[in-house]
Amino acid sequence: MNLSMKDKILQHFLQSKGEPISGQQLADELGISRTAIWKHLQTLQEEGYKFITIKKKGYQLVAAPDRVDAAKISSFLKTKRFGYSIHYFEEIDSTQTYAQKLARQGAEDGTVIIAEEQTGGKGRMQRIWHSAKGKGIWMTVIIRPNILPHQAPQLTLVAAVSVVMAMKSLYQNFTPEIKWPNDILINGKKCAGILTEMLAEMDRVDGLLIGIGINTNHELDDFPEDIQSIATSIAIEEKKKVDRAELVAEILKNLEHFTDEYVENGFTSIKTLWEEHSGTIGKRIKASTIRETIEGQAIGITDEGVLEILLDDGQVKKVYSADIEIQN
Predict the structure, then answer these.
(1) Which helix (DSSP H) or strand (DSSP E) does residue 191 occupy?
(2) Number of neighbours of residue 201 by Cβ within 10 angstroms
(3) How far is CA 181 from CA 39, 152, 239, 281, in A?
(4) In angstroms, rounded to a whole number, what is the distance separating the alpha carbons of residues 167 and 151?
(5) Inter-axis angle of helices 268-276 and 154-170, to 10 degrees?
(6) pTM for this predicted structure
(7) What are the residues facing 297 on neighbouring strands?
(8) d(CA 183, CA 195)
(9) Class of residue 230 by CB neighbours under 10 A (exposed 0-12, middle 13-18, buried 19+)
(10) How far is 258 from 250, CA to CA, in rounded Å?
(11) What pLDDT digit, counting tens, does each position of 218-267 carry?
């Protein structure tokens, strides 16, 4: 875990679950002076963490801001690889753009780039993604699975399953659904999107950039007016604010597990989970591709993750990439 000394100190307090820790104990464990400990605590307090001193016991963390920094995420982390290298930013143009640079420099499998705010967030087809400060999860995960280039689109579906399963494990008041290929809907409104980009040679994948944007603690007024009728957040649907760092850690756990499952055993089990959580299968849809618009009933996905649409004339059309509109 590439934590700074300040974050290592914070990690100790987060993992203590409210129990006080002595300054001397921290100094001994981390190999620094008590004065250095005190200085780092002062910095953390400036960032919004609140400590009190308990006589003969030490410092106690009594309040923490809602952040998605490395120390906060690592306090929830239950992975073998993913999330052990976290690049955290208060503000960035795009986590996806920064991830491209890190991936080309050899960043390890499971490296995370995450920010409180994106000024140039992007979705599929270069659409703007609104990334309100401190409200959502705006991250890119660099993964390096041993797969061939033609398999890369399936990893978008793997990521979608990972996000949905993470939401289901943490929240009780809603049921998320996957809209093919890359959106997560709650009650028909968009809550999350996934953007997968590939770095590859002719015969092998060097890396995949899994961009995940989740509207997490937004209230309705946090969305631009033009999307308020079609967007939602976890907080709106769960009817309370949630811990963003906990959700990040749960997604990373699932993404690591399902990526490994896919590489080892293929797409079959992932496909089953995807179809179980699909909000597209069985619905009448309009699919707009670069060349044409197709209307019909979505009947399933192939073993390659390609959407199958039953047309009104009985033909089955395979769609590899499209914008999907679910029709009432």
Answers:
(1) strand 189-200
(2) 8
(3) 48, 13, 27, 11
(4) 26
(5) 50
(6) 0.91
(7) 284, 310
(8) 9
(9) exposed
(10) 12
(11) 999 999 898 999 999 999 999 999 999 999 999 999 999 999 999 999 99
